[in-house]
Amino acid sequence: MKIGFHGAARTVTGSKHLLTLDNGRQVLLDCGMFQGMGKETDTLNGVFGFDAQTVDYLILSHAHIDHSGLVPKLVKDGFKGKIFATSGTRDLCAVLLEDSAEIQRDDTHFENKKRAQKGLPPIEPLYGIEDARKAMDLFQVVPYGSFFQIEPGLELLYTDAGHIIGSAAVSLKITSGGRETHLTFSGDVGRYKDLILKSPQAIPQADYILIESTYGDSLHLQVADAAEVLLDWITKTCLQKKGKLIIPAFSVGRTQELLFMLNQLELDHKLPSLDYYVDSPLSYEATQVVKKHPENFNDYITGVLKVDSDPFDFKGLQYIQDAEASKALNGRTDPMVIISASGMADAGRVKHHIANNIGDQKNTILIVGYCEPHSLGGHLIGGAKKVHIYGDEYAVVAEVGQMRSMSAHGDYQDLLHFLAGQDPTKVRKVFVVHGEYPVQQGFQKHLAEKGFTNVEIPERHQVFEL
Questions:
Q1: Is the peptide bond before 68 cis (omega within 30 degrees of 0)?
Q2: Which of 109, 168, 242, 293 suits 454 as a labelling partner, its CA being 20 to 30 A distant?
Q3: What is d(CA 151, CA 439) in angstroms, rounded to the nearest whole number?
Q4: Distance CA 466, CA 463 (A)
């Protein structure tokens, strides 16, 4: 048996790990899109590093695009097997993957107009809307909490990872030659005091572990502080400077957390009377999916639901669906809050909002999650004085802020808590994935302190015998 790491290897995005069993069957863990990797992004997404036609099964940990975004390309390239996912992941993928195809279509159209002016040949998107729809026909829902037989000798267990709706750690029981091998892939591990979701569940003892490490060498601020910090940014930008507060936010997870905090501020009679826009059709659809899956909610939000029928709604909230209505926001100069996808500011409507508002010092661009260093969001929080958006250069005049407590990823203490039920002496090897290499090296030291001494940090396309 062997495993190859074809994404999220010494980087955060593009999660793809290919397990080849002794009988030749191939099981792909996640099929994510690389995001925010600069000029390298398109090249990375164009080549899997394996043959899609030879993959027998795809198991998804959750629906974020860096874990599911290349599923339609996998199908387009010849994959015909089953795609296993939780109910929440399946429902989110139904809207996320089609939206991804639409964004690619629109961005490619925009880019090809510029290429035509330069006499360059047109480019093609990675996949189309029909590819996304074909992919959804291959999904099979697997519930949390009990082993499911994929085929004789291969069983799957999903446990709640507490990251987003439907997120799960993947545990596999592989039987070959009368011997059982247990492999666990963490997916993305959430936080143990999340605003909305249940804490990550314990995982069974494993022989091999693939563990994410996005924040593997840092600690978060307390989540309880986040609503007050958000209120401070609204007050400073909208009430004092009379500007626009623009918040790039992933449509799944981060947007709902922001809405929940704003709702809480309203319940506490602290929310300023302003216009609050969620400018993303996908964010609206994702929020409706989140509301359909209260089984992932923690006790606190379950209690809130007893006094507030919709904890993601409040006075002043408006969803923008129409593209023309989105453009109209850029013509206004009155104070407002705009929450728009994507979270790394590398795609979607938020790029246009940033381009139209980055030149005014009264405005603020507030980053509320992880950004790849090469993404637009990464450049902004890195202190860039000038940035390029759709090929044009813009001086960074608006204030750039960051809310470090807004993370759906656990910090290194959360990750170690996630592994606390494991006997390190029984774990043959830990593979650290989904993190920047210096962070992974720091997390490797934390793992060693807990007794996990056989730790690898795979390179992209590196293959290991198990």
A1: no
A2: 168
A3: 37
A4: 10
| 444 neighbors 455 (Cβ within 8 angstroms) | yes
Whether the Cβ atoms of residue 1 and residue 19 lie closer than 8 Å to each other = yes
The amino acid occupying position 214 is T
Per-residue model confidence (pLDDT) at position 266: 95
Beta strands in 116-239 (DSSP E): 139-141, 148-151, 154-160, 168-176, 179-185, 208-212
Q: Angle at CA 96, nearest 5°, toward 277 and 144?
A: 115
* Residue 253 DSSP symbol: T
Alpha helices in 172-249 (DSSP H): 226-234
114/43 Cα distance (integer angstroms): 19
What ranges make up the beta strands (E) of 305-461? 317-320, 336-340, 364-367, 386-389, 392-395, 399-402, 429-433, 455-456
Q: What is the DSSP pairing of strand 336-340 with strand 275-279?
A: parallel
* Token output for 167: 């997120």
pLDDT digits (tens, 9 = 90+) for 14-33: 999 999 999 999 999 999 99
Collapsing DSSP to helix, strand or coil, 186 comes out as coil
Taking the C-alpha atoms of residue 52 and residue 40, their distance in angstroms, rounded to an integer, is: 21
Ordered strands of the 179-185 beta sheet: 148-151, 154-160, 168-176, 179-185, 208-212, 429-433, 455-456
C-alpha of 326 from chain center: 24
Structure-block tokens of residue 310 = 């919709």
Domains in the chain with CATH codes = 2-218+409-465 (3.60.15.10), 223-402 (3.40.50.10890)
| 154 beta partners | 151, 174
Residue whose token pair is 């940014």: 233
Which DSSP state fits 53? G
- The model's pTM is 0.89
CB contact set of 274 (below 8 Å; sequence gap of 6+): 234, 238, 316, 335, 336, 337
Query: 26-29 and 57-59: which strand pairing?
Result: parallel
Could you give the CA distance from residue 413 to residue 357 in angstroms, rounded to a whole number?
38
> What pLDDT digit, counting tens, does each position of 43-60 carry?
999 999 999 999 999 999
